[in-house]
Write a structure and sequence with these properties.
single chain, mainly beta, SH3 type barrels, 2 domains, five-stranded mixed beta barrel, five-stranded mixed β-barrel, 14 strands, 7% helix, globular
Length: 205
């Protein structure tokens, strides 16, 4: 949080960016029935894998008790999807000062919890014009992530993108607001690199 500066002492300083309040619309909250594949207590990141093959990494919000979760648990997770605040199309250099200005903004989810913004340079692997979203992945590999676009000008850009192109963007984290143990209606099978299914032994304690 920025330190308080009195009007007198703040004279001559460059204006601070205005906070963005509740930039993530309520409909963008998603629910995923999944298996926990990874937990990082330091960053509070949780890796999730759904039965359809969907994988997502979310950051656990303050209401999520990581001590009650472990890798292999079957859970129902509610999270705010990652939202794009700025998108630079292929071939357009992203100004570093503009990136720093956007990343420095104070942002909150509709729940009031602070969101982190980050610059990403990713490859587009899927485009959903109806949902105003793109699926992207780091060029070096890793989990596919879905980024929602809500600004009309940026939504118009989606129709010009092509799968395989590299874009630079500033996006918000995917923030988990609720992660609870669940009894799966059917086993969640995750296929590994050698196509051996991994079936969880159970989701409870």
């Amino acid at each position: 949080m920025l330190p308080f500066v009195s009007p007198v002492s703040g004279q001559g300083l460059p204006p601070q960016p205005n906070p963005i309040t509740s930039p993530v619309p309520a409909p963008e909250i998603a629910t995923l029935h999944a298996k926990i594949t990874a937990i990082d207590p330091q960053t509070r990141a949780i890796g999730l894998a759904g039965a359809s093959g969907q994988r997502v990494t979310v950051t656990a919000g303050s209401a999520v008790d990581l001590s009650q979760l472990q890798v292999g648990d079957i859970v129902d997770a509610q999270y705010y999807r990652s939202v794009a605040f700025e998108v630079w199309p292929p071939g357009v250099a992203a100004p570093q000062d503009e990136i720093e200005r956007v990343v420095a903004r104070e942002v909150s989810a509709p729940s009031g919890e602070a969101l982190q913004l980050a610059r990403i340079s990713v490859v587009v692997v899927g485009i959903d014009l109806a949902a105003h979203s793109i699926d992207v992945v780091d060029p070096s590999g890793g989990t596919v992530r879905t980024v929602v676009v809500t600004n009309p000008a940026r939504i118009a850009l989606l129709s010009k993108l092509k799968v395989g192109e590299t874009v630079t963007a500033v996006v918000s984290q995917a923030l988990a607001v609720k992660v609870t143990a669940a009894k799966p209606a059917a086993p969640i099978v995750i296929w590994g690199e050698n196509n051996n299914p991994e079936t969880p032994s159970g989701g409870g304690r």
